[in-house]
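dude i think i finally got it to work??
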Amino acid sequence: MPNSSVIFITNSFFPYGQAYSQRALNLSRIFRECGYNVKIIADCTKEKRNEGTFDGFSYLIAGDNSKKGRYFYNKINSVKLLKKSLETDNVKAVLISGGAYDRFNTVRAICTKKGVPLILETCEWYDVSSFKLGKADMRFNQFTHCIEKAFFNADAFITISRLLQDHFEKSGKPVIRIPTVIDCGDFSYSEKTNNSKINLIHAGTAVGKQHKELFREIMLAISEYGKDSPFEYKIFGSDKSTVLENIGNDTALLDKVSDCVTIVGKIPQKEMLERYCEADFSIFVRPDRRSSHAGFPTKLAESLAAGTPVITNNTGDIGLYLKDGENGFLLKDGTQKSVKDVLDKLIQNRNSFEQMRSNARRTAQEEFSYMTYKESINSLMKTLLK
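look at this
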């Protein structure tokens, strides 16, 4: 009899390419620590192959990131790969990400027929703005139906936030909360920096029209210091057109801060980890809406793991981990004034940066290391497999 397995179905890239790629990898590592072989069935990859191994995990690629792939082929192919794996592997549970809502009901029916528990892993409550056609978009209505009804048919839930945890606890079924999880060993850590100016960075993929994070108030706050600003603000992951769209195409503002704001664009993930180490703080502002409270920013854990304190507003569960003045700063809100107030504190307290870096790294090790959640997964699986 082969070893016990868990099949993990995700609509993301694997083994890298998106923030969720890292979540899928590190959740898989937790299950492996609990004694399970994990096979990942993902929609897309940056590799030129449709299957492979990464960090000891076998993965199968269902399709691609083309429009036809996302709308049609990936769902069909991932279901086919699941059926095949259920025939050949000793599968103890199937794990499906909430982003794969387009195939949830089909996977639920297959698991029921096979007598295999289905675990929903969810870290998003999408806004209507996430969908091109808004409320008229078939995918928006499909997701809404799932988050409000269909997802409750899962046998257990792994959620990224208290908002989602509370939502699915209404089912009366097992629910555990696991925030962003990382392997701190993947991150370089610097105890101090040697920047002449206070180096602030924004990391992450392009924010675009969904406005998952906001640049305008940060730029306005920095602009108050004039041409001799003590700050250097670098934006990674977004190009100039994306940044302009995000700030309402305010070219005058971008020109005003051009001496201290640099838009770098996309860089490889490995290089981004090095940029964290060089920065004094990472900074981002999230809009105060349900999606911000339902999710959890991967970049917060990544920055802390590099020893780089974080400046952000308190949405979702951020306040559980980010302690004001210890491992970063919590903005009172996302306004220009609240950003400026924190920037003034940085100028006045540069001698505290080194201790904050040590605190940041410790927070990442204690709160976001995937090993921290081994017992939670062990307990969940024991409950499901009674």
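The chain has a mean pLDDT of 93.
im so relieved honestly
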